[in-house]
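Still learning. Show one?

>
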Amino acid sequence: GVVSDAGLIERAVSEVLEENPDSAGMFRSGETKVMNFLMGQVMRKTQGKADPAAVRDALTRALQK
């Protein structure tokens, strides 16, 4: 089933951004293509169970901090 557990997704997003600071920086400087890479990393961390729309939202929020 699809996981839209916000806590789980937020944790995975935090971990991915900590592990990929360069990608986070690239996104912030306008390289929006890295969003797909970051989403892929989060999906891998959640064994592909996370709801992609929720992952994208969580990543977007995290990257705007």
About this structure: Residues 6-63 form a domain with the Arc Repressor Mutant, subunit A fold (CATH 1.10.10.410). The mean pLDDT is 95. Helices lie at 6-19, 21-28, 34-45, 52-63.
